[in-house]
Fold these 2 entries.
Entry 1:
Amino acid sequence: MRKPEATRRQFLQATGLTAAAAFAGARIAAQPQLPGPPAKKLGFAVVGLGSLAINQILPAFAHCRHAKATALVSGDAAKAKSLATTYGVPESGLYSYETYDRLKDNADVDIVYVVLPNSMHPEYTVRAHKAGKHVLCEKPMANTPQDCEAMIAAAKAAGKKLMIGYRLRYEPNNMAMIKMAREQEFGKPKVILCEAGFSIGDPKQWRLKKALAGGGSLMDIGIYALNAARYLSGEEPVAINAISYTTPGDVRFADGVEETINFQLRFPSGVLANCVSSYGVGLNRFRVHAEKASFELEPALSYSDLRMRVLRGGTVELRSLPERNQFALEMDHMAECVQGNAEPRTPGEEGLKDLRAMMAIYEAARSSKTVTLNA
Amino acid sequence: MRKPEATRRQFLQATGLTAAAAFAGARIAAQPQLPGPPAKKLGFAVVGLGSLAINQILPAFAHCRHAKATALVSGDAAKAKSLATTYGVPESGLYSYETYDRLKDNADVDIVYVVLPNSMHPEYTVRAHKAGKHVLCEKPMANTPQDCEAMIAAAKAAGKKLMIGYRLRYEPNNMAMIKMAREQEFGKPKVILCEAGFSIGDPKQWRLKKALAGGGSLMDIGIYALNAARYLSGEEPVAINAISYTTPGDVRFADGVEETINFQLRFPSGVLANCVSSYGVGLNRFRVHAEKASFELEPALSYSDLRMRVLRGGTVELRSLPERNQFALEMDHMAECVQGNAEPRTPGEEGLKDLRAMMAIYEAARSSKTVTLNA
């Protein structure tokens, strides 16, 4: 009996109605609307308990309608146990990297959320798929396009979903920016400006180790600018220029990762994008210049307090939308895709496209030549 | 007796004091400060009565302390006569392009302000120098670096001043931006973003004729972004990338001038700039990202209503300065340099530097390669 019920619930959820709400609306319209019964939540295993998991992802489950934390994977058992207590994860859901493959036997885990250093994404994604799990993997998907392709193949072989954690694609202001651009509310977009950066701290962190991070600011923060230029244009770049600078002697970049890399993109329709990626200074803005107005988000990629503005004819109109927890939206989307057997908005193929473009950006900077790509 | 008096007055002006103010301050300190006597104004011949001269330059003389319009040069005698009446230019100061060289005999003209289409700047500058006049020439200085060099040589041969009309270099907000960047009020600048553009109208105007304009948006409006990147960094670019797009079939660009050209600059200190130049969309911002804060002007290059902001840690501080007439400041500077025998802040050499960089920008876009320059 469970399956038909689940299917029906999914249908109601897909139409935006819960069973209770659908009946309540018809029968007792004059009464205050009662919340529907809790949706079935899918279980997530969070793999890698660094600052992103601790400060953002684990607290976000409280805001989820469809996702709950049911397992934690960490090399630090004490840390995992402490976080499990805080977030109500059962002790049976605690894993080390050695026992990771036993997730296969944990029916409470539907989805594995890979929050490890970049270079570990492919291995832990593929192993999760082999354990029969769906995977939500943090950005960047991997350090090379080849790894991305292997991850996509593993998901396909397992018949499981693979989604990349592009949280901004689930964030209301960024979604509104996309709508304004695509529906040409202010005419045709012509120039896109995307800047993402921060002054990176601790020189010992994995983000500054080339083997783990795959590169410097571009892999970690510049990817937001690249991804935004792609989602705001709705196109894939066909020509890329890049120019890079890293402060000599700055200990943070001693392992050969780049500090700042600025890139230019040309899209097939003729939209041009100028982008900045930096570990040296704060940058946090996406802007579209269309024929009749410009519209922007600044901050554009913070976890909160995003601000959207429309600039035209000397006036500035504030359009910010009510705040939502970005990670909760992202995890709920993944859970709903699994429940409804739908393709995630940011599947593995999306991560692969960014990796291909990032490799081209690095190649353009290295070769001092425009790199051309097929759209 | 006129010469020593003029020299003394120049000295007082150079020290920021007029004769009356210097004495008044000592003798009657308790009384309200009276304005000093009017400064001696140098006479300007305005050459080319297009919209810039009519709407901006001629009205600006009313705000000048050291400059007055004493001659007009135009191919349209009726237009010249009408404007002469409005602005108090004597009929003896009206010239056609055929009678232009007779400026030599007009002692009321000290400085010739060349406001012609770009391709005509060299000829009319050189002829003015040969007539023994100082020259203020609109930007871009010329269509080629070779022409710029010839203009500089003509000024030198005549022993006269040559200044390029970079009005923003005399505008208080832009000056304050330079000070904030150079004095590192917010730490070392790392990334500079300069965007200048507008949607160009009448397809028949000279700005859209390649032979007259020397190019498209870059020559006319993008030059502001380039010049700002140079004056905000205080350096000359050593590496340049560029990417261009012009809407096919757009009648405005039928003569082969570019619509949008985006360029990247690397400066010797490692500062990177991303710039946009467009005839397709409105763009009007200069921003510096320094280690501790960002600061910007938007609008940055309008004739009025510039807005300066400092952005740090989620706060935005408005720092706009009282408005001044930019052309009046520019013309007064030229007059003061002539009076005090000082080098203008934006001499011919400054115009030449932009032309060399613009040629490199076009070459980078054309060749799809990074163009390197000597600092």
Note: Chain B touches chain A through 39 residues (CB under 8 Å).
Entry 2:
Amino acid sequence: MEFVLEEAAIILARTPGTLSALLRDLPDGWVLAHEGGDTWSPFDVIGHLIHADRTNWMPRARTILEHGEAKSFGEFDRFAHFRNSEGRTLASLLDEFAAVRQHSIEELRGAVSMSDLNRLGQHPALGAVTLRQLLAAWVVHDLDHLMQISRVLARQYTNEVGPWRQYLRIVREP
Amino acid sequence: MEFVLEEAAIILARTPGTLSALLRDLPDGWVLAHEGGDTWSPFDVIGHLIHADRTNWMPRARTILEHGEAKSFGEFDRFAHFRNSEGRTLASLLDEFAAVRQHSIEELRGAVSMSDLNRLGQHPALGAVTLRQLLAAWVVHDLDHLMQISRVLARQYTNEVGPWRQYLRIVREP
């Protein structure tokens, strides 16, 4: 499918409501569940999405619009949210994500037009990227983390489903 | 995590709202998008979830409660929803799923208690299964399809994300 700016905005705008519908008021054991080792819980993921909106997606779009390839994007700290989320409740993170995302979407609609989509920026690791690729990656990044949260929750019942495991891809795959 | 009846009911009750938040009023191209070949679109998945609630989950639980292992579950028609969804809008399917699921949860809370969870039933392919395994599989089945819908949507932008593909597991994996 071809990238369409307004469709991307529609999908991005839905993510906070989707995550709130899925997670708000779930028992703590589920909110804090993870896949073992250093893997993230739903709580961790919401913190990461807040931090990514604040420091990554629209800030990088603005860097492209203002500086093009002349200025490389800053590095993205994939672990900063652990500090920012400390001591918070899931409800307060979900509320913050809804507010931050609404602000991001307003900025997106105000600052970017279709004619900007092929403008180039400089990613510190990936090299030359277009604004279109950055915005498409934002959409896919949301959905990647929604998939992650679904998987983390489902895997809590990997043993409890017994012989059904063979029918349920989400608990069958590594 | 150990299966807890009331926690399962809480998660099952959230699925219609989650899918509505994610999908309602998305452009048709997204609602009908799939992963190629015979794979399912978000529209198809909602029809399947309705059909599974109507004919599979609580009906099988009732079979266990009433007949134990003496009566095998009926076969589940994994394709019936293609007929039932024909000509429908996504909005009407989402509304129907919300109503059907609410009814299922009321039945679950009314009919099943913790002391029933180890009762045995007979699955036509899997053999002896417990009510606990059936109900855990219901929860995981919801989350499996939420993961599927996230993946189907994300993959529409597989090409549009360009070099970000290597960072985004959802479009990188086969």
Note: The first strand of chain A starts at residue 120 and ends at 123.
